[in-house]
């Protein structure tokens, strides 16, 4: 296999280079700390796994309008954008779609998942306050013992500003397509009792017809410390009102500016609000014991028109819940420490799907997709998860860690309308019955156990070689269990499971910093909708890849950095689509290669420029592997000028060469090729005041 050969070559070359310890002299490496891996601060250079950090300096340079623009700097991560704030994610995976696709990724803010694991949303990063993030941390592959369901392919954790260290600021920004944004942050108080308020308001007029959005977010942080404990509390509220633009159809339709700017679904919209409140209470019990208790509350409420479905039904969903994370850290001695705890959460979710107008199209569609209520259900979920993480320094150079997590998930489902596939008044649909099927009220439970084992070897003070063997899981989402179609009256789904092996090396040699990793990941019980429109769990997939993140200081003024990914994602189960068995095929919307390469030039401390080259390779549009998107290359140019210590001006030109491209491409039997077109050349400017 070509992928396996590539991995072998990379690892052999890396091993040969690293055996020469004298080549890695100390150069004053800057410590980078993450909290995603273990909840307590961990030096990222010593973490035995692939965890990438986008720090405040990088986020300030990017000034992303969409979180995709920041995450493109992380190898192995790919987001395909829709218009507005929508996207489809991938972390060491293809770009996943479908009712439960969001369950493959754990999205968190300040360590707390933004949604309950059974009620994820594929776009839920728009609920996090990424616009004012201090740092974004991305753990690739199955999560650690501190992460449960949904940390299947990776974790994205958005870290908001710390009132103890953040400067006061106000930023005003304007750009193409009537884009404007205001950011504001202020903090007050003493070091042991300090509060900060951080807010952003964005307006985007949209590149396409009848599109655009207004979005407001506010985060309030408070820090209080006493001699033996500290309390860090926060509140985040977000609001999004979006006019959504749908797919355009036709081979290479994105290359026509008039078609690309059109919107076949001018009636589509998405309105959503979210609220999260939390406190992290840290107790220093003794010199060897520390306790962290994090109670939280969260609520989300979203209405959106499903423009991608026949009949364009309206979905109204809501979830309301609370929980607590507990972690106790005990240091036995300088070589051995243990972190153990218990996580609990309870959530009440609801979903209503309804249609006001008759379905357009064929007689079959008109008859099987009726006006009225399609689904109306409530689900109460309870999750209890004990875990333990043991770290042992076997010697000065070798560290071993063992983690385990057990998670019990229960869904109490109540159907609030008629059971079966009738209309909401009980009458039958023609052609064998209505499209949407509502199962009877029931209780479902899922038990999952996931072990983790890793080893890290310090070649010297600057270079770490690591390996990691881990399992991940996700319980089925409520929509997969209770939002059925056609003849399916009940599901018999198990949790998706992933087995992953990773080998990597990271560190710094002179002016080069690097993180190279290779992974093999196999997924069992992959949940998908089969040709009978049944939700089933007999899918298997395989994922093999190599990732490189590096930065090289050419001299004091020039720097080049890159994030490279090469992987193959394949179907490993037998499934016939027509007369084609997709076993062994590439999974659709899974480019084998993609990268971000940045050349930076700073002629002085006050002036800086960056040219970024984004590459997305070709990929198949459907499981049969009959149609392809050709891929694309984009250039972005950024510049900033520090007028003084308090004032900064910045200018960004996105899609510098005005390339016609597709943010997303796929293929359906109803529409053939369809695309989310990318934006043409766009210019944005901002002024930033700090004090």
UniProtKB/TrEMBL annotation:
InterPro entries: Beta-barrel_TonB, Beta-barrel_TonB_sf, Plug_dom, Plug_dom_sf, TonB-dep_rcpt-like. Residues 44-155 form the TonB-dependent receptor plug domain. It is found in: Cell outer membrane. Keywords: Cell outer membrane, Ion transport, Iron, Iron transport, Membrane, Receptor, Signal, TonB box, Transmembrane, Transmembrane beta strand, Transport. It comes from the Bacteria. Residues 211-656 form the TonB-dependent receptor-like beta-barrel domain. The keyword Ion transport applies. Transmembrane segments: none annotated. It is a multi-pass membrane protein. Belongs to the TonB-dependent receptor family. This is TonB-dependent receptor PqqU. It comes from Sessilibacter corallicola.
């Amino acid at each position: 296999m070509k992928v396996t050969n590539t991995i072998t070559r990379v690892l052999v070359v890396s091993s040969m280079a690293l055996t020469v310890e004298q080549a890695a002299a100390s150069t004053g490496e800057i410590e980078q700390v993450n909290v995603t891996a273990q909840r307590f601060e961990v030096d990222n250079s010593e973490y035995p796994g692939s965890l990438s950090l986008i720090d405040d300096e990088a986020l300030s340079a990017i000034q992303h309008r969409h979180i995709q623009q920041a995450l493109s700097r992380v190898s192995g991560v790919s987001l395909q954008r829709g218009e507005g704030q929508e996207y489809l994610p991938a972390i060491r995976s293809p770009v996943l779609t479908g009712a439960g696709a969001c369950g493959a990724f754990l999205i968190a803010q300040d360590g707390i998942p933004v949604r309950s694991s059974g009620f994820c949303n594929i776009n839920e990063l728009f609920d996090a306050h990424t616009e004012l993030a201090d740092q974004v941390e991305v753990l690739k592959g199955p999560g650690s013992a501190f992460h449960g369901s949904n940390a299947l392919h990776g974790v994205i954790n958005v870290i908001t500003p710390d009132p103890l260290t953040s400067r006061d600021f106000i930023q005003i920004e304007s750009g193409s397509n009537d884009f404007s944004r205001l950011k504001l942050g202020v903090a007050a108080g003493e070091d042991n009792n300090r509060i900060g308020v951080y807010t952003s308001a964005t307006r985007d007029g949209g590149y396409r017809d009848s599109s655009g959005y207004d979005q407001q977010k506010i985060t309030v942080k408070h820090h209080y410390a006493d001699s033996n404990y500290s309390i860090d509390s926060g509140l985040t509220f977000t609001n999004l009102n979006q006019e959504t633009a749908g797919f355009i159809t036709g081979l290479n339709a994105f290359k026509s500016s008039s078609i690309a700017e059109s919107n076949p679904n001018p009636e589509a919209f998405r309105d959503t609000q979210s609220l999260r409140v939390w406190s992290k209470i840290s107790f220093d019990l003794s010199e060897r014991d520390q306790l962290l208790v994090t109670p939280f509350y969260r609520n989300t409420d979203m209405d959106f028109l499903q423009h991608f479905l026949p009949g364009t039904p309206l979905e109204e969903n809501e979830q309301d819940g609370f929980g607590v994370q507990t972690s106790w850290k005990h240091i036995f001695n300088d070589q051995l420490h243990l972190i153990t705890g218990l996580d609990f959460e309870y959530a009440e979710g609801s979903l209503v799907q309804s249609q006001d107008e008759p379905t357009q199209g064929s007689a079959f569609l008109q008859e099987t997709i009726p006006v009225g209520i399609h689904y109306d259900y409530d689900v109460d979920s309870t999750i209890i998860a004990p875990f333990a993480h043991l770290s042992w320094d076997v010697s000065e150079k070798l560290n071993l860690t063992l983690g385990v997590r057990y998670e019990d998930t229960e869904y109490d489902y109540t159907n609030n309308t008629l059971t079966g596939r009738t209309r909401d008044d009980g009458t039958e649909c023609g052609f064998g019955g209505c499209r949407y099927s509502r199962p009877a009220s029931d209780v479902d439970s899922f038990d999952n156990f996931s072990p983790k084992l890793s080893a890290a070897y310090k070649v010297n003070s600057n270079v770490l070689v690591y390996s990691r063997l881990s399992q991940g899981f996700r319980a089925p989402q409520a929509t997969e269990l209770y939002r059925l179609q056609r003849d399916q009256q009940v599901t018999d789904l198990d949790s998706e499971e992933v087995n992953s092996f990773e080998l990597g090396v990271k560190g710094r040699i002179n002016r080069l910093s690097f993180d190279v990793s290779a992974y093999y990941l196999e997924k069992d019980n992959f949940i998908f909708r089969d040709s009978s429109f049944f939700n089933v769990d007999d899918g298997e997939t395989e994922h093999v890849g190599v990732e490189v993140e590096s930065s090289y200081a050419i001299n004091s003024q020039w720097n080049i950095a890159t994030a490279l990914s090469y992987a193959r994602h394949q179907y490993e189960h037998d499934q016939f689509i027509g007369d084609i068995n997709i076993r062994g095929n590439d999974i659709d919307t899974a480019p084998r290669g993609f990268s971000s390469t940045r050349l930076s030039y700073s002629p002085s401390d006050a002036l800086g420029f960056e040219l970024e080259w984004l590459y997305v390779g070709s990929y198949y549009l459907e499981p049969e592997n009959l149609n392809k998107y050709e891929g694309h290359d984009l250039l972005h140019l950024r510049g900033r000028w520090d007028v003084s210590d308090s004032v900064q001006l910045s200018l960004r030109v996105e899609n510098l060469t005005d390339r016609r491209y597709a943010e997303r491409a796929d293929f359906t039997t109803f529409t053939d090729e369809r695309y989310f077109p990318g934006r043409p050349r766009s210019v944005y400017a901002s002024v930033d005041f700090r004090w």
